[in-house]
Amino acid sequence: MSHDGRATQSDKRRLRREFLAVRNRLTADDVRETAVALARRALELPEVAHARTVAAYVSVGTEPGTLALLDALRARGARVLLPVLLPDDDLDWGEYGGEGSLARVRHGGRMELREPSGPRLGPDAVTGADVVLLPGLAVDGRGLRLGRGGGSYDRVLARLERAGARPALVVLLYDAEVVARVPEEAHDQPVDAVVTPSGVRRFRRGGRA
After folding, report:
1. Which residues, in sequence order, are CB contacts of 50 under 8 Å at separation 6+?
2. How far apart are CA 50 and CA 34, in angstroms?
3. Which pLDDT tens digit goes with each residue over 37-87?
4. Rounded distance, CA 34 to CA 39, Å?
5. pTM across the whole model
6. Nearest CA to 56 among 148, 158, 127, 126?
7. Helix, strand, coil percent content, the chain, rounded in steps of 5
8. What angle do the packed helices 67-75 and 28-42 form, to 10 degrees?
9. Which residue from 70, 42, 64 is spatially nearest to 193, judged by alpha carbons?
10. Residues 174, 80: Cα–Cα separation, whole Å
């Protein structure tokens, strides 16, 4: 595969469409069942189970469900931070206080998101997290993540790097979304682990095949 930037972006767009088409065929029951399994598997990771602060997100539509995990983390006494999308696609953060603390927010013509309704903590709040849960559509054998293409989490990862912060980076996916290889760009960073309903796979941070 060419590493030309335009070719890579085209490859990523095609793959995003393919993975989203599969997700769109899932039922509400499928999503609920996998959310419970994902929460159980994620808590098998010591980094997640013992984290004091976790930067997470609220799943939407047929994304792998996160609410069961958010509630389990809160029940264990962890502080859970959730993103607030800013007009420039960067992320601010707020604290999760249970499902009742979420507000539905529509950003222009894009999808409706559920965001924390409490005080804003600033974009740099993520640098204090022990674990950052990243949304994605796929991850490959090197730990490279295929995101949705909005760039918000590229900014988060760059912010962590500038701050010298080294939280565990974890992606939550369906089993079929762990693939051999995804298109790679120079700024892409490998994650530490992927959690699926059937288990956990770890990667060597910084290692590429």
Report:
1. none
2. 22
3. 999 999 999 999 999 999 999 999 999 999 999 999 999 999 999 999 999
4. 9
5. 0.90
6. 126
7. 35, 20, 45
8. 30
9. 42
10. 22
